[in-house]
Write a structure and sequence with these properties.
7% helix, 2 domains, mainly beta, rod-shaped, single chain, eight-stranded antiparallel beta barrel
Length: 343
C-alpha cells in the first residue's frame, strides 16, 4: 500500500536525526523505551495498531515496562474540515519544543504519517515506505510491561466534536461615555453578534447594539434655569481579526458606525417649556480585551474613541441665551461587558 497523504508539518523538517545517539557498534539492537498516550476519533486505528505501524518501521524503540524510566509520546487525532488532523508531541529536543501536525483526507493516512514521524525521531534509518502487510518483527521480542503501557488521554478526543465554523453571541455592556453624551454619562448597551469561531487571527464578526443613558442628565444653570437631556442610539460594528494573547484571552479591534438622538426639554425657570432633539452620527474605533470565563461565557474590557459627523447644540433662549449642550467633534468611552456564545 502506498501512502499518498498530504502532510502539513509544523516546526523543523520531518526527516531529522535521532533523539538519542547510539552508544557503540553493538547498539543497533539497543531499544529506547517510550510510553504512548493516544486518543483518536471514531473510525481511527486503535493505540495498539498505531504502535504496530511504528514497529514496522523501526526496532529501535519499544514500549516501556511499568515503573521504567521512559519518554512520553502524546498522539491526538481529531476530525478536521476536510478529513482528519493529528498531532504528535515529544519531550523537548535541544531545549526546543517538539510538536508535529499532520492533516490528511483519512485517519488511516494520518496514523501512517505520525508513525513515520515517531519512528524517524528515534531512528534516522527507519523505513519510510510502509509495507502492504504488517509482519511481526524478527529477532528477540521486545520487553513488554506487566500492565498495558499505552495510556488513554484524560479527555478522549473521540467524544469531542469540532466547533461550528460560525456562531452567535449576546450580552450587555456598561460603560462611561464622555463628549457626545451630556456630561460623563452612564451607558447600557445590550448587544448581539455573529461571526467566525475559528481559532486563528482572521476571525470576522459583526456586532449590533443599542445604547441608552441611565439616568437622564439634568443641566442646572446659575440663573436658576434647567434642562433635561436624554441620550440614546444604536451601533453596528465589524471586527475582522482576533489577536490571541494566551489561551482564552484575545484582543479584538473593531470599527463602528453610530447613529442616535439626544432629546432635550426645558424645566424650571424656562418660560416656554419645549422639547427638541438633535441627531448625532459618528464613526468609532473600538478595542475589546475579551476573556473566556467558563464554557460559553465571556467577559471583556471595552475602550473606544470616535469622531462625530454632526455638531448640533441645545440652548436656553434668552434673555440671556445660554448653551446647554453641544455635540463635540471627538468623544471616548470605556467599560465592561458580559456575554455568552451560542453554538
Amino acid at each position: 500500500m502506498q501512502w499518498h497523504a498530504v502532510l502539513w508539518v509544523t516546526g523543523a523538517t520531518l526527516f531529522m536525526g535521532p533523539r538519542q545517539a547510539l552508544a557503540d557498534g553493538n547498539s543497533s539492537a539497543e531499544q529506547t523505551p517510550i510510553r504512548i498516550q493516544y486518543a483518536a476519533h471514531d473510525g481511527c486505528p486503535d493505540a495498539s495498531e498505531f504502535f504496530r505501524r511504528v514497529q514496522a518501521r523501526t526496532q529501535r524503540i519499544r514500549l516501556a515496562a511499568a515503573g521504567e524510566l521512559a519518554e512520553s509520546a502524546t498522539i491526538t487525532i481529531q476530525r478536521g474540515e476536510s478529513g482528519s488532523a493529528g498531532t504528535l508531541e515529544l519531550p523537548p529536543l535541544d531545549n526546543r519544543p517538539f510538536s508535529r501536525r499532520v492533516e490528511a483526507p483519512t485517519c488511516d493516512e494520518v496514523v501512517l504519517a505520525l508513525s513515520l514521524v515517531l519512528a524517524l525521531a528515534y531512528d534516522p534509518d527507519a523505513i519510510t515506505t510502509f509495507p502492504g502487510v504488517i509482519t511481526a518483527p524478527t529477532g528477540p521480542p521486545p520487553v513488554q510491561p506487566a500492565a498495558p503501557p499505552i495510556e488513554p488521554l484524560a479527555t478522549p478526543v473521540a467524544t469531542a466534536a469540532p466547533p461550528p465554523n460560525f456562531g452567535a453571541a449576546a450580552g450587555i455592556s456598561a460603560y462611561a461615555l464622555g463628549g457626545i453624551a451630556p456630561g460623563l454619562s452612564s451607558i447600557l448597551a445590550p448587544f448581539i453578534e455573529y461571526g467566525s469561531n475559528a481559532d486563528r487571527l482572521w476571525k470576522p464578526r459583526v456586532m449590533a447594539s443599542l445604547v441608552f443613558q441611565i439616568p437622564q442628565h439634568e443641566v442646572q444653570k446659575p440663573d436658576g434655569r434647567s434642562a433635561t437631556l436624554l441620550f440614546f442610539g444604536g451601533q453596528v460594528a465589524g471586527c475582522p481579526i482576533a489577536l490571541s494573547i494566551t489561551s482564552g484571552i484575545a484582543v479584538v479591534p473593531c470599527l463602528g458606525f453610530d447613529l442616535g438622538q439626544i432629546i432635550g426639554s426645558g424645566n424650571e425657570g424656562v418660560e416656554a417649556t419645549r422639547t427638541g432633539s438633535l441627531w448625532w452620527i459618528a464613526f468609532e474605533a473600538i478595542g475589546r480585551l475579551r476573556a473566556t470565563i467558563t464554557g460559553p461565557m465571556f467577559a471583556e474590557f471595552v475602550g473606544s474613541g470616535g469622531v462625530t459627523l454632526s455638531q448640533g447644540e441645545f440652548v436656553l433662549q434668552g434673555p440671556p441665551e445660554v448653551s446647554v449642550h453641544k455635540i463635540p467633534v471627538g468623544f471616548g468611552s470605556f467599560g465592561l461587558g458580559l456575554g455568552v456564545h451560542f453554538q
